[in-house]
Fold this protein.
Amino acid sequence: MAEIISGTALAAKIRAELKLETDELKKAGITPGLAVVLVGEDPASKVYVRNKTKACEEIGFYHEQYNLPATISEEEILDLVDTLNRSAKIHGILIQAPLPKGLDFKNIIDHIDPNKDVDAFHPYNVGKIMIGDFEFLPCTPAGVMELIHEAGVSVEGKNCVVVGRSNIVGKPQAMLLLKENGTVTVCHSKTPNLADFTRNADILVSAVGRAGLITGDMIKPGATVVDVGMNRNEEGKLVGDVDFSSVEPVAGYLTPVPGGVGPMTITMLMKNTLKAAKLSVKK
Ligand code: NDP
């Protein structure tokens, strides 16, 4: 039976550490500040934004939230980004994805000051991740690495398989595993016979968005399985990509959904915001 790696517990531990560091920074007169921009009425995005705001309050950050109508023009959002780039109170800027149709997420991200890009989506920060010399780690992949470390699993020399190649999860995940000397394979929708790859994985990260994609017969006995996927099943319950009941008896370590990668992603966002505040002092 796999040992379950709790993201909820690890996130609470890291947030307590971040709070202590924040208290210290506040004594020096700096309060880390995060601006969260929500455009439109996407219900899932509203929940994420609320959770991010709650995390800011828990740690003691200053935060600003902008709820903008879906009808807003891109120019108006860019004007807001410019204002936030100049604001001394704001160290991190987050544009909640997905944006309503007609708004170019990439163009808006390109306008964020890279020093305030706490999601690490700006091409400058993506490039830094590529060369292994980064200020900000991408939040979800960084959370995955923390979970792997928490389990006491070393990446070095391991066969690592990442399923999914998005710019926000799959690709940067592969880079972080490579940085820790894993041998990394990235699979995607055009990969034939996915199980041929996953069965060789000592460490498997699934970031697809398809419930039940990864089943027990696709897992190497004892493997570390991290489930990034977030899906609603037929009953409306939140589930990952991993078929928990068939994978749990085979894997060595397994992250649950909910309570795995999700709380870690927000925690890594908080870590990046604190780092951005510290870096602003140096600059
Ligand atoms: P995207 O839709 O951008 O990417 C999905 C990836 O999965 C693509 O690369 C796609 O391949 C690949 N894929 C699709 N079908 C298959 C298949 N049958 N076999 C193998 N690969 C497949 O999603 P994201 O990366 O943004 O997110 C992935 C999942 O992670 C979602 O469920 C999302 O909700 C969740 N998520 C969770 C977070 C958390 O904090 N827990 C944070 C971010 C995301 P191709 O490129 O060929 O299309």
